[in-house]
Amino acid sequence: MQHSSKLQNVRYELRGPILQAAKKMEAAGHRILRMNLGDPAPFGLEAPESIVVDMIHHLREAQGYSDSKGIFSARTAISQYYQTRGLMQIGVEDIFVGNGVSELISMTLQAFLENGDEVLIPAPDYPLWTASVTLSGGRAVHYLCDEANHWWPDMADVAAKITGRTRAIVLINPNNPTGAVYPRHILEQFADLAREHDLVLFSDEIYEKILYEDAVHIHTAAVADDIPVLTFSGLSKAYRMPGYRAGWVAVSGPRAATAAYRESLELLASLRLCANVPAQHAIQTSLGGYQSIGDLVKPGGRLREQRDLACRLLNEIPGVSCVPAAGAMYLFPRLDPEVYPFTDDEKFVLDLLEDQKILVSHGTAFHWPTPDHFRFVILPSTDDIEEAVRRVAAFLAVYRRKAAAQTPVEAAAG
Question: Of 238, 258, 288, which residue sits at a domain end?
């Protein structure tokens, strides 16, 4: 059997060959420091007990199919959550519950795109967005985010990449992998472009509650109530339950303009019958109860302390610079090309894995255009973060010594 031609340009390297190499090394008895995936569970960041208990309590009534859009209590809780944040137009029937945001990204794009339609996606991005656009017959066009300006989108680059085939713009806010949180004026510029060019905004807000210092999250839909906006969120990150697969999308904007699209979403939701029902019962308790994520991100909180430590230690490595994340669970450090003239960042990550038994993700896996970044996850303990950065520093120190003794061409090849 041969693979479908639809997969020709589809990549998801976060679970690709480098991860497989790490698994083989683990099978051979090596302990790998995993700084590559944003899964809180392996690092002791567990779901709040009250949410788990509530889900267990509802197991007997969760044995059958639910409404294809999701159980009513969950959609009501989601609607009320958005209304308390000023999005009064989002009602129960505007909510679709899915098996995590990942499923809903694919479903919403399949319902929307024609072959050859273009979708603007940030670089760096969460690569599922690019893959899903491609699988839906569309073409992903990447707009740049500006590392020198808090990793906020370069709005001039966004505007320059809009063509007659452009149908939508994706925002990831807070951003994965940079941790950028977008201010209101950036969101307003996206809304202005959408109005001018008759575009839809897809706003991935799964990290909306994971914010550091004075960062404030603003829903894209809050500045664009007159245009179609799809808002994605869920329980996997802020509530530390990615394995439960509980996510949702809220469709807002003029109802007349989105009526046919909503019908197509209902069709696709029906085709998969429903999202897993037990996890849906966790949504109401999650959104209405005590928000424990606040304890983790405030000064002295575990995520805040781990972010601060990782950022400081990475910046202490010669030739490495790291913008502090304003949100989410990641850092996206830069390797100065003058010091580390890598031409293949995937090889850099693989060499680092083999030499130091540490797994990170290479920057081009997130569609960053140059091989000079990598993603570093801040979920492990402070001891593991210190050890991980020590190993990265040791590997880079050896590289610097070798590079100093070679010609530039030899150093880049090595």
Answer: 288
